[in-house]
Amino acid sequence: MQNFAGEKEFYQKALVVKSVFWGVTLLMLATRYFSFYTYSGADDLHYAFLSHQFLQGNFDMFVADDIYSARALVVLHQAVWFKIFGINDFSTCMPSLSLLVILAYFICFKLGLAKNFFSVLLAASLIYFNPVVVKATLGNLPDVYI
C-alpha cells in the first residue's frame, strides 16, 4: 500500500479541525446547561406533556382543540431526547440544540469553511454564540419567528 506524501498531514489537519468544531460544540452545550434560566413560552411545557404521553403510549395526534398534538414530528423528536436524558430542562432544549449542531456542522464543513483551525473556531463560535440563536434554542420552539 502506498503512502502519499501529504496524506498524513491532510488527516492530521482534518482531525484538528474537527476536534476544534466538537470542542466549541461541547463548550456551547456546557454553557447552555449551566446557564439555563427560563423558557420563552408555555409551548415547550405543552410539548413536554405531549412527548411524555407519546412515551407512555397515550398520544393522540387528532385532538380537535389542540393544535400542538398535530405536530407529531416535533413531539417525536422531543420524546427521543426524553427517552435518552429523562424529562428535565436540558432534554427539553435538546431538540433545538441538536438541530443547531447539525446546522453548524453543515455550515462549517459542507460549505467549505473548514480550511484551518481559526476558520472553524470563528464559524462555529459565530453560529453557536449568536444572541438570536441563544434565545431561539431555549426550548423546543418550533414556532420561533426569526
Overall mean confidence score, pLDDT: 81
- The N- to C-terminal Cα distance equals 52 Å
The portion of residues forming beta strands comes to under 5%
Q: Characterize the quaternary organization of these chains.
A: single chain
Kindly state the number of beta strands. 0
Low-confidence runs (pLDDT<50, min 5 residues)? none
> Could you give the order of the helices and strands?
HHHHHH
Residue share in helix? 55-70%
The backbone outline, from C-alpha atoms, is: elongated
What are its keywords?
single chain; 146 residues; mainly alpha; 6 helices; elongated
Question: What does this 3D model show about the protein?
Answer:
By secondary structure, the chain is mostly helical. The chain has helices at residues 7-34, 43-56, 72-85, 89-110, 117-128, 131-136. α1 runs parallel beside α5 and α2 packs across α3 (72-85). The longest helix is centred in the first third of the chain and has 28 residues, at 7-34. It is elongated, with a radius of gyration of 19 Å. The mean pLDDT is 81.
Short description:
This protein is mainly alpha-helical and 146 residues long.
Topology diagram in text:
Layout: H1 7-34, H2 43-56, H3 72-85, H4 89-110, H5 117-128, H6 131-136
Helix pairs in contact: 1-4, 1-5, 2-3, 3-4, 4-5
